[in-house]
Amino acid sequence: MRSRKIKKQIWLSDEEDYIMKCKSESVGMNSSDYIRHLIMGYKPKEKPSENFYEDIKSIRQIGNNINQIARIANAKGIIDIPHLNKEIEKLDGLIIDIKNKYLKPEKID
Questions:
Q1: Are 20 and 83 within 8 A, CB to CB?
Q2: Which helix (H) or strand (E) segment is 106 a member of?
Q3: Which stretch of DSSP H or E encloses residue 18?
Q4: Where do the domains of the chain lie?
Q5: Which of 18, 42, 49, 100 has the most CB within a 10 Å radius?
Q6: How far is C-alpha 99 from the chain's CA centre?
């Protein structure tokens, strides 16, 4: 069931309509979602480039490699597991930071 029950209708000039379409498309939202974010005090960020997603994929591959190395090293007892786990946590934190930088909307003051 739809959680939004109130319909609002607004009138825009051609220029305003064009600007709204451009801005909402640049952040990957439809006009309604874009307006709701603005009403709630958030400035949506533009969609990141394809390079962003390629970087995230590369970082995840590195993380998977580290995990495989850790499993082998653990089986042979050659590596400092707590240190490796700390590095994996750093990598996970980096992924979250990048997502927040590129994807999370900013709060408007």
A1: no
A2: strand 106-107
A3: helix 14-26
A4: 1-47, 50-107
A5: 42
A6: 4
